[in-house]
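URGENT: need a sanity check before tomorrow's submission.

F., can you look over the Exodeoxyribonuclease III record below? I want to be sure the sequence and structure line up before it goes out.
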Amino acid sequence: MAWKVATFNVNGIRSRMAPVLEWLDRHRPDALCLQELKCQNADFPLDAFRKAGYFAAFRGQKAFNGVAVLSRSEPSEVLLEFGDGKPDEEARLIAVKLNGIWIVNTYVPQGRSPEEPAFEYKLDFFGRLKSWLDGRFEPSQPLVWTGDINVAPEAIDLFDPKRLAGKVSFHPREHEALAAVAAWGLVDVFRKLHPDTKQFTFWDYRLPQSFKRNLGWRLDHIYATRTLADACLECQADGEPRGRETPSDHTPVWAEFDLERLGAE
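Structure tokens as predicted:
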């Protein structure tokens, strides 16, 4: 059985409803993870997604952040916080269990610059995520970690690695933090399937014609635990939504898995 999961930083869900609904209709993923909703729970367009045939688990926040998982089947469990005793005011984490598989959707802090406190907050987020995975799950479980992870892992994952080395989202400390999370037992399924392919998921609004010139970064990722990663059939970014008028600065990324290899139903 083919099972498709996708991620999309929409940069304001109410501004991107048309492309999101069109993408759902065209691709019919089993789950679509959204980040940067920029709306409170009361303003989340739940009815529109229900009409499209999707359940929605979400955690909103006024004007900033916000995460959601849309799914064709109803989640059996939903988690909204790390639950580690630290403040969790920012809506950056949601996890749902679908058909026995956990999907962890994160909107990792951008970090601003390595000199600012926001950068340390970003590194702390990765540390909390690693501790949460350690305490809540097992690497032997089928689990997907996805979302806007806000790190380009390798030089191939951004348009100018020499000039941008040491900048936010391509800094050695971020690479170490991301690698520590992955070392828990997660595989970057795009890079596993396409070790030498340059493919981006984000093109900065601030750079003139960044999308047309392909001045991009691969910041949106789909990781999976080993047994699930070995069942991955394909993983790709779909650049079409980024080429529209008034798009998000990110574009969807999807992966398809053969669940029969797991013995899942």
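My own read: The mean pLDDT is 96. The chain has seven helices and 14 strands. If you see anything odd, call me.
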